[in-house]
Amino acid sequence: MRIGEVWRLTRGGEPVAEIVVDDGDFPWLYGRLVPLAPFEEFRPLFEEEHRLLQEDSSAEEWDAVYARISSALTLHSPDGPVAEYLLHVDGDEAWFRWID
Predict the structure, then answer these.
(1) At 25, which helix (H) or strand (E)?
(2) Using CA atoms, how far apart are residues 80 and 71, in angstroms rounded to an integer?
(3) In a 3-state reduction of DSSP, which class is residue 10?
(4) What angle do CA 79, 41, 83 make, to 5 degrees?
(5) 27 cis-preceded (ω within 30 degrees of 0)
(6) How far lies 82's CA from each of 18, 23, 74, in Å?
(7) Whole-angstrom distance, CA of residue 97 vs CA of residue 60
(8) CA angle, corner 96, sides to 41 and 70, nearest 5?
(9) pTM value surpassing 0.70
């Protein structure tokens, strides 16, 4: 992990947002979310996911919301797409982990 790395969220190859890494605590990376216009379609899902996370809601409820995010968006490291990821967004803050 290098400070300043840029990770990208895409939908079908279309850029949706960038995450500029500013910290890390294995296995998590932390950064600033730079939303692009298409991100606004997904913002309510990320807000709902974060709300459920904060409220310690049922796993089924959280899974349903997060499945909508992960099935629609692909996370790309500087080296290319990752197989799986877990991404949380709160305003312009993002934290995530991934599996290659």
Answers:
(1) strand 14-25
(2) 17
(3) strand
(4) 30
(5) yes
(6) 15, 19, 8
(7) 20
(8) 45
(9) yes
pLDDT at 2: 85
Q: Supply the DSSP symbol for 38.
A: G
| pLDDT tens, residue by residue, 91-100 | 999 999 999 8
Length, in residues, of the chain: 100
* Amino acid making up residue 91: G
Question: DSSP letters along 39-87, please?
Answer: GGGTHHHHHHHHHHHHTT--HHHHHHHHHHHHHH-EEEETTEE-SEEEE
User: Cα(64)–Cα(8) distance, rounded to whole angstroms?
Assistant: 23
54-93 core/surface letters (b: 16 or more CB in 10 A; e: else): eeeeeeeebeebbeebeeebbbbbeeeebeebebbbeeee
What is the predicted pLDDT for the residue at 75? 98
